[in-house]
Amino acid sequence: MNAEIIAIGSELLTPFRQDTNSLFLTAQLNRLGVEVSFKTIVGDRRSDLISVARIALSRADVVIFMGGLGPTEDDLTRECVAETLGRPLKRHARIVEDLRARFAVRGWKMAEEQPSAKGDVIDGADALDKQTRLKRRGSFCILDDQHGHANHYSFARASA
Questions:
Q1: How far is residue 26's CA from residue 36's CA, in Å, rounded to a whole number?
Q2: Spatial separation of the C-alpha atoms in residues 79 and 50, rounded to whole Å
Q3: What is the pLDDT along the chain (160 residues), one digit of tens a residue?
Q4: How many helices (H) and strands (E) does the chain have?
Q5: Distance between CA atoms of 18 and 15, rounded to whole angstroms?
């Protein structure tokens, strides 16, 4: 089984930020017996992200998308991956409530528009809790660290 890690963020294409997260993910995947065949860094341009997603899905059994500095208001990851897969986005109420709870614990007030995009899940994906992350082989994953505000999804890709 092979994997591709895609690090997303125009800031990762400057000399001021490095993609160190993929090193950690590579070690974890290798521990699970998954060989990382490709690592790709792509900026925040929609057409580039869709192109990279198509290529990765054509050559890897597992594809992991991760952001550079965390979820931002202009994050296109979900939308581009959904478009690449030909699947719509659907609102996931549990995720929206989890986000509200995370903000409340920190004493932050979440603007009403914030949970909108962050609560959307690619149709057919399972929203993963911390115990099930990276335990599903042959799945498509979107991951972010446990301290961020992005969520984690997995779904099996249909055989071509």
A1: 6
A2: 9
A3: 999 999 998 889 999 988 888 998 999 899 989 999 999 999 999 999 999 999 999 999 989 888 755 556 667 888 888 899 899 988 877 777 877 787 788 888 766 655 456 778 888 877 665 444 444 444 444 444 444 444 555 555 544 4
A4: 5, 8
A5: 8
